Amino acid sequence: MHYSELITSFEPSFEQKMKHRGFYEILLLRLRYYTESLAQTLFEEWVFLQEYSIIISRIRKTFSKFIDAGGICIQLGEKAFNTLN
Questions:
Q1: pLDDT tens across 44-61, in order?
Q2: What's the pTM?
Q3: Which residues touch 42 (CB under 8 Å, ≥6 apart)?
Q4: What span, in angstroms and rounded, lies between the C-alpha atoms of 16 and 45?
């Protein structure tokens, strides 16, 4: 089996684009010296993260960057985390 068979494309729905349009507008302002395709790619990654994925991190600094960008954060202690594993 090739890993390429496991990869599917992701295109945010119209509703998802509208829901996260504020983030996209900020991206365009911050990345104004880069291509719009870079902003589009980062936006799609953001939507996927917000709608379909989770991040678990033991390192607070990196995780804080996602929170600063508007990510939703649920903090669990070690006991609760181990229970979920």
A1: 888 988 888 876 667 777
A2: 0.62
A3: 27, 31
A4: 12
